[in-house]
Specification:
This protein has 415 residues and is mainly α. The protein has 17 helices and no strands.
Length: 415
């Protein structure tokens, strides 16, 4: 790309209305985050081989950083609600890129664990707080904007395995992919910096000068107010149920996706290339579903849709684990990708709607519930090490069953 082309593209971006440019910048951050997730999922067989990892270590690498991040993120949420969101996003973006470079340089279990311990909370500050800013920007369209957010994530989840496959075909391995992703993270951060006033609108609009700087409010007051809001939210049974159902949905989303490549290699007997194809099928059909769900949610109740699709997922997932033929498994994997589209968008949007103007509290709540959820990959890794990955994945069936039983019955037509 020559300098004239680059300047032309920058000029077109500047001509976009601020809300549209903010939406583009926010979706770019989510795209990069899910590119990392998709890349990591597809690269696990190579990571395990190159770094001499066993299943217990894989489970620890998936679980410990998630638990660590979830212990830190409530504080990030409190600081965000106190008017420090912009600076947390910027700092998180820089740490996000640095962590990816450390992953690319990892030589064994401990260096990779340290890199992921930096990456997970950095992702929370950079990406989760950007999502919170997007939700605050248009409270009347939570489900629709969350659907767009999920669509950007699906593009990333599909692109990640493609990057791994391309790197393998070129003989470059997984390390250069993570270096490239660090560069893309900095591009997304630059886009967000161009609309930085949108990241913390309360700072711009508040007549109180005490919230005008990143460190103006006393931290003890900030954390006390945050804990009070968190306790009030947790006292509501509807909030607790929504958090539980969101984590149950994740069993068939990120957690399942993280084990797909390993499942096809170890339980089905697939090659690394075929395992990468399985991840591409799951994320590719999921991407189609996420494209379709955006207009669907304009007409259909999100909660009713998720409850109905959960029944289909339960039946399809059981069949996926039982059939021996690889071709049939791939077809059922595609069905799972289609049926789970919209789950995260609907359930996360429900939390934002239940807690208006408290997006930082939503982040803190999600982090607290995810502390226990972070133990799930560790438990699955232990089960897989002891009994095999085929047996371990049956536990994920609890996810769609919980949604089927826990979500309220509602009319499918949006009112």
């Amino acid at each position: 790309m020559n300098l004239r082309t680059l300047k032309s593209r920058r000029a077109r971006l500047r001509r976009l209305p601020t809300p549209a440019l903010f939406l583009l910048a926010a979706l770019a951050a989510e795209l990069v985050d899910e590119l990392v997730d998709g890349t990591t999922g597809a690269a696990w067989p190579s990571l395990r081989s190159d770094l001499s990892l066993n299943y217990v270590q894989v489970g620890l690498l998936l679980g410990i950083p998630a638990v660590f991040a979830n212990l830190l993120e409530p504080a990030l949420g409190f600081l965000a609600d106190a008017g420090r969101r912009r600076w947390l996003i910027v700092g998180g973006g820089l740490c996000f890129a640095a962590a990816l470079l450390l992953v690319a340089a990892a030589t064994g279990f401990w260096p990779l664990l340290l890199a992921l311990l930096l990456f997970y909370p950095a992702s929370g500050a950079f990406v989760s707080l950007t999502q919170a800013a997007l939700m605050d920007a248009d409270p009347a369209r939570h489900e629709q904007n969350m659907a767009r957010w999920a669509l950007a994530g699906s593009v990333g989840n599909l692109g990640g395995p493609l990057l791994v496959s391309l790197a393998a075909a070129l003989g470059g391995g997984w390390r250069p992919v993570f270096v490239g992703l660090a560069g893309l993270a900095l591009v997304a951060l630059a886009l967000l910096w161009s609309v930085r006033a949108q990241l913390d609108p309360s700072v711009q609009s508040s007549p109180d000068s005490s919230v005008s700087g990143p460190f103006s409010n006393p931290l003890p007051d900030t954390f006390w107010a945050g804990w009070q809001g968190l306790r009030a939210a947790l006292s509501r049974s509807q909030i607790r149920r929504s958090l539980l159902l969101l984590e149950c949905a994740d069993l068939m989303l990120d957690i399942f996706r993280g084990f797909v490549a390993l499942y096809f290699v170890d339980a089905v007997g697939a090659s690394a290339a075929q395992a990468g194809l399985a991840v591409i099928v799951l994320t590719g059909v999921g991407l189609i579903g996420d494209v379709l769900i955006v207009p669907v949610l304009e007409r259909v109740s999100g909660v009713a849709y998720v409850r109905l699709s959960a029944a289909g997922v339960a039946v399809t997932f059981a069949a996926f684990l039982m059939v021996p033929q690889m071709g049939v498994k791939l077809a059922l994997l595609g069905v799972l990708g289609l049926l789970t589209s919209g789950w995260y968008a609907v359930l996360q949007a429900r939390l934002y709607t239940l807690l208006p103007a408290q997006s930082g509290t939503v982040m803190a709540l999600g982090s607290i519930s995810a502390v226990l959820a972070g133990l799930v990959p560790i438990a699955l890794g232990g089960l897989a090490q002891q009994f095999g990955v085929q047996v371990a994945l049956w536990a994920l069936l609890l996810g769609p069953l919980a949604l089927l039983l826990g979500l309220p019955r509602a009319s499918l037509k949006r009112e």
